[in-house]
Each structure stands twice: as structure tokens, then as C-alpha cells.
Design a protein that fits this description.
Length: 244
């Protein structure tokens, strides 16, 4: 396995890992309740959701780090922008996750009804970081990486096209959410974010299963290791192996 395949495999696996936060939509139902801090019951669902979100944040940075050495050959500025946008996305996810931990802390400290406004404010902070971190930033990511992959032909062009189509739809969804027309958990928002989700899932599967296209690597100045060459190199290594 040559080093470009290692980078594509790492990026693909990390993209697939970013989907493990989907259960948080259900895990956070309790903590989002109006009277959560004055209620009773375990907080384990919140902790599980926070852990999943932190994993997603770190995996998101990992996708950019894994892809950067290859895609920078196409455009270094856009590649650096992708690393930066992924890092900012992760930072927003961290802020949102920690705000929910603060709500749990209020509950465990025995906060009464007088602290309900503070708890509601922290939940709202999580909602806004979700809209910006996992709403707006994926549109920025798709615009940057989609352009790089479309131009470089490292993957089939249909994949970045899906991502680029999803960019304006996701921006419309975020705008409607920010002005209060739809909620961040509404069905319409989910529909508008679907192309971006398909783009990231399809990209993760393709990079994991196939890796970068040889023609794209050649275009960027790499020399892909062909199957025949790989077998020949393996056979040669066996022939040169010293006999005990």
C-alpha cells in the first residue's frame, strides 16, 4: 500500500466515523426538556452524546489532515482553508457539547427553579453551535473540498457535484433556522441537509473502498502503484529475501 492509499483510507474511515453522532438527536431529548435540572433520573444519555460529539469533532479534523498532503498539490490555499474550516467546526462542536455538560452540572449541584433560565440559555447555546458548527461549516467544507476534488479528479466527479449542489441548500436551511422560520430539528431542515450528508457518506465509502483514482494522482504529479507493479515488487522482495 503506497502512502497516498494510506491517506485516502484514513480520510474515508474518519468520514464514516463522523456519522456516529446521529444518535444524539435522541440522546439529548431529555436534557432539552424545560424542567431537566429540577427533575430526576440518570444523566448517562447526555454523557454518551457528548462523547460521540467529541469523537466526531476530532474525526472531522482528521479528515482534513489526512487529505491535505494530497489535495494541496491541486491548490494549497483551498487545502489550508479546508483544514481551518474543519478545525473551526470542531471548536464549535466542543463548545456545544460542553454547554450541555454545564446543564448536567447544574442539575447535580441541586439547582432549583431559579436556575432554569440559565439551563435554557445553555441548551440554546448548544442549538446555535449545532446550527453553525454542524450546519454552516459543512457547507464551507463542501465548497472547499468539493472544488478541490472536482478539479483534481481524485474521485468520480459525481461525488463533489453532489456536495456542491448541497452547499446552497444547506445555506438556505441555516438561514431559515437563524431567522426562526424552521427549527434546527425540523423535517424541512433534514431534507435540505440531505445532499451534504449523502456527499460525505459517499465520499467516505469511496475513499475507504477504492482510494484516489490513478488518473487524478497522475494529474497531481504522483505515480500511483499499479496492481501489476505491486505484485512484481512483492515477488521481487520474496526472491531477494535471505535464506536462513
Amino acid at each position: 500500500m503506497d502512502w497516498t492509499r494510506k491517506h485516502s483510507l484514513s480520510a474515508g474511515v474518519l468520514y464514516l466515523i463522523t456519522f456516529i453522532s446521529i444518535p444524539t438527536l435522541f440522546l439529548y431529548t431529555q436534557v432539552r426538556g424545560a424542567n431537566y435540572i429540577v427533575g430526576s433520573g440518570p444523566d448517562s444519555r447526555v454523557y454518551i452524546g457528548v462523547v460521540l460529539e467529541l469523537i466526531v469533532a476530532l474525526a472531522g479534523i482528521g479528515t482534513a489532515v489526512a487529505l491535505y498532503p494530497v489535495v494541496k498539490r491541486q491548490n494549497e490555499s483551498l487545502s489550508l482553508g479546508f483544514v481551518g474550516s474543519r478545525t473551526l467546526e470542531a471548536s464549535l462542536i466542543f463548545v456545544g457539547a460542553f454547554s450541555l455538560l454545564a446543564v448536567v452540572a447544574l442539575r447535580r449541584a441541586g439547582a432549583g427553579a431559579t436556575e432554569l433560565p440559565a439551563a435554557h440559555a445553555l441548551v440554546s447555546l448548544h442549538d446555535w453551535t449545532f446550527v453553525l458548527g454542524q450546519g454552516l461549516m459543512p457547507a464551507v467544507n463542501a465548497a472547499l473540498l468539493g472544488t478541490l476534488l472536482y478539479q483534481s479528479r481524485l474521485v468520480p466527479r459525481i461525488l463533489p457535484v453532489i456536495g456542491l449542489i448541497g452547499v446552497p441548500l444547506l445555506l438556505v436551511s441555516d438561514t431559515l433556522t437563524m431567522v426562526g422560520t424552521i427549527s434546527y430539528s425540523s423535517g424541512l431542515r433534514g431534507l435540505l441537509t440531505l445532499p451534504i450528508a449523502v456527499w460525505e457518506l459517499a465520499l467516505g465509502i469511496y475513499l475507504t473502498a477504492k482510494g484516489f483514482r490513478p488518473e487524478g494522482l497522475r494529474k497531481l504529479g504522483f505515480k500511483p502503484v499499479e496492481a501489476d507493479e505491486s505484485r512484481a515488487a512483492t515477488a521481487g522482495a520474496r526472491e531477494l529475501r535471505p535464506v536462513a
